[in-house]
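Session log. Operator J.P. requested a structure for one protein chain; no other inputs attached. Running the standard single-chain path with token output.
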Amino acid sequence: MTGICGVWRFDGQSGAAPACDRIGRALAIYGPDRAGSWADGPIALGCRLARLLPEDRYDRQPLISDDGRIVLVADVRLDNRSELAEALDLASGDLAQMADADLLLRTWLAWGPAAIDRLIGEFAFAVWDGDAQRLTLVRDFIGCRPLFYHQGDGWIGFASMVKGLHALPEVPIAADKTTLQRYLALLPMQGAGSFYESIRRVEPGHFVEIAADGRVNAVRWYRPPPLLPDLADPSPYIAEVREIFERAVAARLRATGAISCTLSGGLDSAAVTATAAIQLAAAGRRLKAYTHTPMLGVPLQTPPNRFPNEGVLAARLAADHPIIDHVMVDSAARSIGDDLDQRYYYNEIPALNLCNELWVSEINKLAGGQRGNVLLTGAMGNLTISNEGKHGLNSLFYGGRLLAWARIARRVVRSGSMSVLGLAFFTALPIMPTAVQNALQRLFGRPGPAVRDYTLVRAAVMDAPQTGRATLAQETERFFNNLARGRRERILSALWQQEILTISYKGALARYGVDTRDPMSDRQLVDLCLALPHALFLHREHGRGLYQLAFADRIPAEIRLNQRRGSQGSDWAARLYAARERIADEAERSSASQTANALIDLDQLKWLATTIPDPDTADLDAAVVPYRYRLLRTLSVTHFLRRVEGGNH
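Structure written below.
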């Protein structure tokens, strides 16, 4: 990962170069190995390099085309270097001494914006075309690398992280209320908005063109693939999944440092870990695997159909691979919210899940140590290889393929995966009002928390129309109903909500020196899983049919056929109770924020913060929604607002 930046004064005034340098200095924590800059009158580009790939030693950004027309800065890892080199007719010797940014420049010179669709990997880059007087900002298909911009009066600036833009006094630092209230209402970001009202983001799968008159035009370049046909024998699809997955893991082993991974007791990290272990063993290298485990001797809260400690199953997989050094991490010295200020400094966004962030940051610290170390994850596996597939039934139903739906639905009911009533409820879910859903759940003895139970957004805010359209509550209801409409809709919606993850990965690089990489985010793998027939994911009685077919020979049956999922952070109640004084103090400070007062029921926040239950005596199942989710999600936002609006009061 690298920090990139730029300033263009299309009003013709001077000052682009010093402003760009100022942004670059603020980004130095994300790219401390080399600083580079280029300026030509009103336009300046900069780069702060973090050397994470072997070829990065050849990186000399900013890059300028031979004719001087094109200048490029890039935060990039290209995973299809060989294919691009072949298409460009580059000799293998030349490719070996070429940084990924150099190869990217070659592709842009050959095909212009059409080159973007040829790229496999993670990237955010900027291209200045001097002849056309046009600046183009580009981001990969799901936004693995962040990129933000601010448009002022007669100028525009961009940076990999908002910290860079905030280094300029002309850029106001103010939280975006719309983004925050959507975040608290469990809704994704909308359009190009960010957590800051004056800063926009290049959306995943888009490029943004800025013209000399200041016009900004955003273009979506990524289009999901069409569905592939059903096959009587799915083996060709299974073979393709395996081939692409092997390639995705191999691409993420290209590094200058040690390789480690997160290993839970679940399907996705098991597939990543086992595959990486096989490939590293062939190269005579070792793999360190980190497993989060709960603290000993404290009460654990475990939802139905889950298990509290993933260490046993993780150890089972590690035992199959002698090159794995397995490390259990209970983070016993940590408590919830003990690093909120540090997290804000590196990320400048609200934390997504304070319970899980605790052990994630502990593993990041252990996996870091020196820059260039890689931490493999399987965070996006539920959207790809281990997708449960049941939403494919609704894809068929609402897509009018009723005979196919009936055939597969019959098999699902016969396997015991779903009852007839459960199938009927699930099929009607996309068009069922929330009140009806809740009434039916109560009728059958399965009442679930409503969206309002998860949030402390004021009722007046939830019930106010959003820019003349539906209320926030209605928009939330519509969003979740739409998720149930089909498998592809659900996957795509989740794919484009990765902002907080990608920013936190950037923050972990600066804070711990570790480069987090997820093979499940590989574009070819995601595209294939989007395109595969719905029936393939429901192929086996154990569910997650694609995974069962693709990894039967690689993953132990105890993991692969386990119908229960691990419960991460099952010791949350004990950790929260230990941190109760800090949590109460942080909640009390929230009153200083005008935005928090306008959006959030702060009286309820403070009440929750001062009534954190003793885990030895409390009903933890009843406490999980109000305390683990409602309290902590809101507290991360009020801390963010406190830092944005006034620092430490």
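Operator note: DSSP finds 28 helices and 19 strands in the chain.
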